[in-house]
Amino acid sequence: MAKRDNDSIFEYDSYKRYLTAISGSHLQRNGQKKILSEAMGVQSTYLSQVLHGPANLNLEQAEKLTKFLVLTQDEKHYFLLLVQFERAGTTDLRKYYENQMQDSRQRHYQLQGRLGKREEISDEFKAKYYSSWIYGAVHAALSIPHLQEFEALRSHFNLDENVLMEVIEFLIELGMAKKIGTTLATGPSHIHLGHHNHNILRHHTNFRLQAIRSLEKESSTEFHYSAIYTLSEKDRFKIKDILLEAVRTNVDIVKNSKEATLCCLTMDWFELKSS
């Protein structure tokens, strides 16, 4: 089965060809093989025998590898079917796993066809996306080169690996994240909230809670400011305009800035009175 540009596992009928494809060019392959073998806890020479000889991974090794490759549940199921297909010792058993693989591929492409390439996310998925700050934070972090590996993300956000996997699967399903070999990146889909969208309150709340948590850290790289003013109505709106212009300036700076660190801006300017 031919390799396609996106290296989707469903494009392969052999797990060996899939692993060989994602190992990269000939110059990169030895280093990548070492990384893959370490993820499974085996020697590089053994992995070479698997990829280029009659040896096969066992299911425990294959399962460890699915975590390293950040495979979704459907991809993991298909990968394990490929391994079992290669290991099967009878024609009938190989035929059984071949049928299972065909069913798995069909379900994947049916789902992919229904989802398509999302230009805009539905309200149902927006509700989940804005249910927690971590979806937006991981989505943004995927634009930073050193955070495009699963373990780097897990360490950066100090998340349980199952929680992070669920977040990544959700972002991939929406087209907001994608996998390129063993790395992750932002996808083509996007989310935009208007001022009157019902998720806007949750969005502001999520990151203001993170701002409160950041107060516990004493860092010279962070800045927090709170004050109560009394001033004229005219100057009240003048300050609002200054803050809006600062936001526009920030957007221009960020637009041309290389992705290296993940930051959050929360800004409030409001009249202090009871509701």
What does this 3D model show about the protein?
The protein has a two-stranded antiparallel sheet. By secondary structure, the chain is an all-alpha fold. It has a domain at 9-115. The model is unreliable at 1-6 (pLDDT under 50). It has helices spanning 15-22, 26-40, 44-52, 59-68, 73-87, 91-115, 123-129, 133-141, 150-157, 161-174, 200-214, 233-255, and strands at residues 177-180, 183-186. 57% of the residues lie in helices and 3% in strands. The N and C termini lie far apart (65 Å). It is elongated and about 85 Å long.
Q: Return the structural class.
A: mainly alpha
What gyration radius follows from the Cα positions, in whole Å? 24 Å
Task: Please count the beta strands (DSSP E, at least 2 residues each).
Answer: 2
Treating each run of at least 4 consecutive H or I residues as one helix, how many helices? 12
Which strand order does the major sheet show?
1-2
- What is the strand content? under 5%
Q: Which descriptor suits the 3D outline?
A: elongated
Catalogue the unreliable spans.
1-6
The overall pLDDT, averaged over residues, is: 84
Largest sheet: 2 strands, antiparallel
Helices and strands in order:
Blueprint: H1 15-22, H2 26-40, H3 44-52, H4 59-68, H5 73-87, H6 91-115, H7 123-129, H8 133-141, H9 150-157, H10 161-174, E1 177-180, E2 183-186, H11 200-214, H12 233-255
Antiparallel strand pairs: 1-2
Helix pairs in contact: 2-3, 4-5, 5-6
Brief sketch in words of this structure:
It is built from 12 helices and 2 strands; from the N terminus they run H-H-H-H-H-H-H-H-H-H-E-E-H-H.
